[in-house]
Amino acid sequence: MPTRWFTETLHRHVRQALAYTRVIAQEKTPFQKMSILETEAYGRALTLDGIVQTTEGDEYIYHEMMTHIPMFAHPNPRKILVIGGGDGGIAREALRHPEVEKVVMVEIDPSVVKFCRRYIPKICGKAFQHPKLELVIDDGARYVRETDERFDVAIIDSTDPIGPATVLFETEFYRNVAQVLRGPGIMVRQTGSSFLQPSEMPEAASRLKKVFRVVAPYVAAVPTYVGGFFGFLFASHQIQPLRATPAHLEARYRRARLVCRYYTPAIHRASFSLPANVRARLEHA
Ligand code: SAM
């Protein structure tokens, strides 16, 4: 098949082009335009409104770092809330933890779940058939405003702050997430590329600091999220992310019998050691 090029249009002055051999599927939903491409470098890739969401080749980095950092920082994560996460990668990783009793995943667009289950099952695995998973089709902002369920960990795996995801970057949403967390609850969210979306982490950090006592940034290198380190924020009323000693994390990791492809107990701690340029941006947050 001839090589064609998909060009990502997320950033104004930088484009990412991925060679692909075919469009596996495409659909316009009431929320966004979805496509699944067979790319040469990363296998199947999900794009939403022209933005790379996740690829078979590097999805594990993001999904492991968004999930296992809060899960191993929390003393006993039994009920997990995922906002967004339509590809199923976060749910898959959360369900690997033996102490988890329930994962509630709130996804606004049912077509994303249907699409990913059908066309990139390598990412969701059996997550959507798992008895501990409850899939709720709703706006995550409305769900946290109205639910009386309580959670130990909340993972905000949304698209970028455009379209339906915009509400998931506002202080009111964070206040409502804090309401649905119980005890030493933890929330994490992605905050985009440290170079190409430099305001996302400081903006989210300043809003989260109005709600949570502990707000700690961490980073990882995700190849298809171009533009330097990819940012995350860890927020909690009580838990410092580095509270867990290396020995404690090693023991938790061994007890969980996880074998990850990016996350390690050492990376858990190291990912909170920020480069000076990233730390500098947070000074006034
Ligand atoms: N890992 C990707 C990233 O970092 O950009 C995101 C993956 S996942 C595909 C993002 C999901 O967020 C999409 O399925 C989208 O439909 C969902 N989403 C966007 N806004 C939402 C909202 N307000 N409530 C619930 N889900 C939402």
CATH superfamily of the largest domain: Vaccinia Virus protein VP39
Strand order of the largest sheet: 8-7-6-9-10-12-11
Instruction: Kindly estimate the percentage of residues that lie in beta strands according to DSSP.
Output: 25-35%
Q: Secondary-structure element order, as H and E?
A: EEEEEHEHEHHEHEHEHEEHHH
Mass-distribution shape: globular
* Distance N to C terminus: 49 Å
Number of helices: 10
Report the count of strand segments: 12
Q: What structural class do you assign from the helix and strand content?
A: alpha/beta
Q: Please state the CA-atom Rg, rounded to the nearest Å.
A: 18 Å
What is the CATH top level name of the largest domain?
A: Alpha Beta
Which molecules are bound in this entry? S-adenosylmethionine
Residues in helices, as a percent range: 25-40%
Task: Please tell me the CATH architecture of the largest domain by its name.
Answer: 3-Layer(aba) Sandwich
Mean pLDDT: 95
Can you offer a commentary on this structure?
The chain starts with a strand and ends with a helix. It has a seven-stranded mixed β-sheet with strand order 8-7-6-9-10-12-11, sandwiched between helices. The model has no long low-confidence stretch (mean pLDDT 95). It folds into two domains: 50 residues, Spermidine synthase, tetramerisation domain (Spermidine Synthase, Chain: A, domain 2); 224 residues, Rossmann fold. It has 285 residues and is of the alpha/beta class. 30% of the residues lie in helices and 31% in strands. Strand 9, helix 6 and strand 10 form a beta-alpha-beta unit. It is built from ten helices and twelve strands. It is globular. The structure holds S-adenosylmethionine.
